[in-house]
């Protein structure tokens, strides 16, 4: 409304301004209402919580990084291929160009990532698994590792199928680093406890994003990350993982469309297996055999891998190299690997000119290789892009495709294990996946050879589809090495092919049953070798875990503080033990009750006043009683991600239980009783807890052999 | 070896026997080795644990039951169809044959199941969800419900699409009953605690079997049952669910092959959507709109359903009917439903002659309905079995397929809600699934009408596939009604069609975001209406839940027993309160510490001796401190499935917290702060805890409105 006020020039001016403003904005009521509406929408959007935006940004960001990295790796790989072709027919030059390129790449990757931070080495999944159980690994998720890992990983992957490494594990690590960094930016207002809670939720989502943005598979991304990383899972974290993983997978495939690689959003390793008659019932038998073969090979692989990892650390020469000259070690190993895969040499027997992705595309091929007739050998030509040309790589004039596949499996077995000892950022899932696909393809081709006219059921002849066996093999081998079942779904999502899902699950279950009984998973094995803090699984059927009570294995010598104690006493306590937190008793009497705990923090050592005045004292949430069973204590540690819990009897502090105590028992029991009972009931044998006092150790050993 | 002993006739005979035995069994060494081998295999197989056998039997058994039930229902349905055709063209007879059959079936179902046990009514999922949180519902899983539920469910489903009910929920209940029964048979030797633990593991697996053996979908069966039933999940229970569900799904589809329904193992609602170009990028926008529509409709559905469920219980007439004459109520409701679906009447506008499975097959159809031209109306003919004949049911001479679809959606909305009030064994998932598919089909056909020539992207024209929208609609609507995301995978597994997975997940996420913000899920809603004990979810972002401590809301008046107390004192305590267990103090002083608990059991009331001598006293595992926050306490209750936990301060018993206290707070907070924040953060408003004392209630109300 207009309020003309009579007055001087100034007021008139003001009035003119008002008028002109009003002339620009008609319908004040409608505008006000609109503004109200917008306010409401804005408020609604923000009330939904920032989680949505956060997860969206995380998913999209990781997808873009994944895609850009793929693009860069492809370019680098093309450069290598070009170089190898341009060099001409001089064998020495060819050899040099074939070996030097991956050596330079891998050595640079090692040197660069090691020089910035040693945390960027490896896949990172064992460490993440440890972090998710509540252990704090300082700096492991710091953003400064990010650059080192991205650059290192790109170089590692650009070295190509010679080094035979993947990107899944490292990408999960990258994704969690980004999530923690983004989380730090927004959670400055939140309280500490809430923050910790939230961070865990976000870590779970970030892991799902990591898997999803590599394979473009949202559902199995979530499931795989849950299976591999966690022991317990809250259903309310579910949607976070799904939302972020969907954003990631969507963006990842969308970028492929924008880049004109694909016409529309489709599966990443799209396969065109026949779906009108995928498999005959009789073939389920062969799928079960495939599962058993994969399970046994996975056992052998895991055993050899752990053995080699330990051997490399113990051998004087390699240990010295790894301690001081990591790039030299890398260069030597890659030289060996590259020499073996040199195409005019042994490489021609193992299709070594294919990239990791091309390996998968050929192995998941719809055709039956045994029935195809290869062209004349054309090793000099570059491998062409069409499926026929790619398949030609598997053919060799003097060996059948059975020969090349078997040779590939034989050589890659130890080359793959050797590659896992390289101190550079890499993922170890993809090579296992490819290896499994090759196992499946070999068995599938054999079945197709046994039934050249197909399997007859109800009058009609149905040809065998070896591609289906390759799917099942990839899922079964990778699933049993990582102790996970969701690889069955991963294979379906990555190929967009669902009709083989039942035999694939069958093979995965059989393989898992065998491997989980005899070997810890790839990641648990690495945790054991790296001696990370870790809570072993307990066999739920074992009676002793119900009979042993906390009193029998708790640590009795707990350093406690009294509420009124001064600086001297606190200092003495800090000197006596290296605990991260101390129980605070109500009075100095030994029979007094702990009501709270003080954290070991620098600001706690002020020289004046008492403990109660100066230090951060938090109330204790839970206390155990001495009659709690080992099984219950283990369950609590696992569920609540505890580090240490105090034991009280009639309100008197009598001891404490930390992971070391629970672990000591678990390990002892496993040793006493031998084999397990199937999934989840094996105790993965941990390294002996050297810190436990002798008395306790003896008790544990007695417990280990119950009558 | 032969030991010839000189002696009488008898010894010679013996020798001869020995010789003849040996002549029958050559190569004693090889045999001994073989026998040793077999022993070893046997031992190995049994050492793997009986779990495998148990789960295998469970899966196979449920699949057989599911298949037999399907077969029987099909026969009964065929009989109804035949009757309806044979009756001729007399409208009255037609009407009677159309309405009487479902009325008889549904009334018998109600009467039979009610007369045996009232527990067999409904889907059973809300009760199972409550049981999984640790509440003991007596007799709910007793095997005597089994027969009643199987017979009742068969009759309900034989009433066909008139009543519009499904079998998923009931089948989950059946599966858990079988699992508990099988479990009882084998766990006689185990200890109680272990047994309880094991039973929970088996329940989770059984639920997965229930879903998997209905849809033949192993992976999504496991995921859906987790999402719907549990709040936390142990990864080690995973393989059990997968193994049992795979056995169930495999057997279920295998039986279909043996019965010559299918040529080989294939998806249950196999669809042949075009997979070379499933959808254009622009279409993701329409999929998001579809998700929003499904979410809004799901909100309306859930609200109306709860309202009607309460209204039917409160209305004098219906309440009286439901209390005394349940079959009469069923008969009246089914008469109304059948009259509306009568094909010559309104039924012709809603394709009422199709079965539930045929509804799904037509809605997931590959063709675009708007482009097809129907034959002349043939309402008199029975619907033929080919897709074209089935589709004809959706056509009406005076209404387009848009008209029939819209009418179907409008009428089925309230008919579906009305059907859920019927007191008979039934599942409520399938109708929601079909309804969602119809929403999707309608929107898909609309999009296809808007872009009759397809959507142009990069030069090429790509036609719209309305079947893909039907998939997304089914997943989004059923997912948002049940608050689950795994329906996206369920739809893919049930149709064997994976290429639409990304837009389907998108729609499901959008729909879930809307519904979870405004309404409790279908099962939670039923729990609220049925007043089952239940722990509401807590909003993880709400600050107050971190600030409120146990001291402020715990129950202070705890009836405790002293260890030396005699019969009189125990009797007095039992009279004073109705607690299920009592803390046992070390001495009679009030400041004494509780070390153990006595269970309220009949053998505890022996008239001589003290409590310590006669009663079952168990040690207390955990104690809370008064400074534990509400959030932490809630977390503990949820994780450990606690019913009640005692609070001690300096070793002195000061109170107890049970679900009622935690729930009271949760509800109060929700009322104070309004809307939630997305998945998992809403507090589903519970019924007010009338048992809480006034003082406590006031405290809760104060907490509900923090400054």
UniProtKB/TrEMBL annotation, chains A, B:
Its main location: membrane. It is a multi-pass membrane protein. One of its GO terms (cellular component) is plasma membrane. It is found in: Cell membrane. GO terms for molecular function: metal ion binding; voltage-gated chloride channel activity. The chain crosses the membrane at residues 52-74, 203-226, 238-258, 279-308, 328-347, 428-451. Pfam families: Voltage_CLC. Gene3D superfamilies: CBS-domain, Clc chloride channel. Keywords: CBS domain, Cell membrane, Chloride, Chloride channel, Ion channel, Ion transport, Membrane, Metal-binding, Repeat, Transmembrane, Transmembrane helix, Transport. This is Chloride channel protein. Residues 662-707 are annotated as: Disordered.
């Amino acid at each position: 409304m207009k309020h003309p006020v009579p007055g001087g020039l100034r007021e008139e001016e003001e009035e003119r301004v008002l008028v002109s403003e009003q002339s620009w904005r008609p319908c004040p009521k409608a505008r006000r209402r609109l503004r109200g509406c917008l306010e409401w929408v804005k408020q609604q959007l923000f009330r939904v919580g920032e989680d949505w935006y956060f997860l969206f940004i995380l998913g999209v960001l990781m997808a873009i990084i994944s895609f850009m990295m793929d693009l860069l790796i492809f370019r680098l790989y093309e450069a290598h291929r070009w170089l190898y072709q341009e060099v001409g027919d001089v064998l020495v030059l060819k050899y040099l160009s074939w070996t030097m390129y991956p050596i330079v790449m891998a050595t640079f990757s090692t040197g660069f990532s090691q020089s910035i931070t040693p945390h960027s080495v490896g896949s990172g999944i064992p460490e993440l698994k440890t972090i998710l159980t509540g252990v704090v690994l300082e700096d492991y998720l710091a953003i400064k590792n990010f650059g080192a890992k991205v650059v290192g990983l790109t170089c590692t992957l650009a070295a190509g199928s010679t080094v035979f490494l993947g990107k899944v594990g490292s990408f999960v690590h990258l994704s969690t680093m980004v999530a923690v960094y983004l989380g730090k930016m927004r959670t400055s207002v939140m309280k500490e406890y809430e923050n910790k809670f939230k961070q865990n939720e976000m870590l779970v989502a970030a892991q799902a994003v990591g898997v999803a943005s590599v394979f473009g598979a949202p559902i199995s991304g979530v499931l795989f990350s849950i299976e591999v990383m966690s022991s317990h899972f809250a259903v309310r974290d579910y949607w976070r993982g799904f939302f972020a993983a969907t954003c990631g997978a969507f963006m990842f495939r969308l970028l492929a469309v924008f880049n004109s690689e694909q016409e529309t959003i489709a599966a990443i390793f799209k396969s065109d297996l026949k779906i009108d008659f995928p498999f005959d019932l009789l073939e389920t038998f062969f799928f079960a055999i495939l599962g058993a073969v994969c399970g046994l090979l996975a056992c052998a692989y895991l055993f050899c891998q752990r053995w080699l990892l330990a051997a490399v650390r113990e051998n004087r020469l390699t240990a010295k190299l790894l301690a001081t000259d990591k790039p030299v070690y890398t260069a030597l190993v890659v030289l060996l690997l590259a020499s073996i895969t040199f195409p005019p040499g042994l490489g021609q027997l193992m299709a070594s000119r294919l990239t990791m992705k091309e390996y998968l595309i050929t192995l998941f091929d719809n055709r039956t290789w045994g029935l195809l007739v290869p062209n004349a050998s054309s090793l000099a030509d570059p491998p062409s892009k069409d499926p026929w040309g790619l398949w030609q790589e598997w053919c060799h004039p003097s060996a059948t495709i059975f020969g090349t596949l078997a040779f590939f499996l034989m050589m890659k077995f130890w080359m793959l294990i050797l590659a896992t000892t390289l101190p550079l950022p890499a993922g170890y899932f993809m090579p296992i996946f490819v290896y499994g696909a090759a196992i499946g393809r070999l068995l599938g081709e054999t079945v197709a050879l046994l039934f050249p006219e197909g399997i007859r059921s109800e009058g009609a002849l149905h040809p065998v589809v070896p591609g289906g066996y390759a799917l099942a093999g990839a899922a079964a081998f990778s699933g049993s090495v990582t102790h996970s079942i969701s690889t069955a779904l991963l294979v379906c999502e990555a190929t967009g092919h669902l009709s083989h899902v039942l035999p694939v699950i069958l093979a995965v279950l059989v393989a898992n049953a065998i491997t989980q009984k005899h070997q810890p998973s790839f990641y648990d094995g690495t945790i054991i070798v790296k001696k990370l803090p870790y809570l072993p699984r307990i066999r739920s059927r074992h009676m002793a875990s119900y009979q042993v009570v906390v009193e029998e294995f708790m640590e009795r010598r707990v350093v406690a503080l009294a509420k009124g104690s001064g600086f001297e006493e606190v200092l003495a306590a800090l000197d006596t033990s290296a605990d991260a937190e101390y129980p605070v008793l109500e009075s100095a009497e030994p029979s007094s009750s702990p009501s709270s705990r003080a954290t070991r923090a620098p600001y706690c050592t002020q020289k004046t006043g008492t403990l109660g005045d100066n230090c951060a004292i938090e109330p204790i949430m839970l206390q155990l009683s001495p009659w709690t069973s080992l099984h219950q204590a283990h369950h609590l540690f696992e569920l609540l991600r505890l580090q240490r819990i105090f034991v009280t009897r009639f309100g008197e502090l009598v001891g404490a239980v930390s992971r070391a105590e629970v672990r000591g028992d678990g390990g002892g029991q496993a040793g006493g009783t031998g084999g397990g009972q199937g999934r989840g009931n094996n105790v993965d044998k941990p390294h002996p807890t050297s810190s436990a006092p002798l008395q306790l150790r003896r008790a544990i050993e007695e417990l280990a052999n119950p009558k």
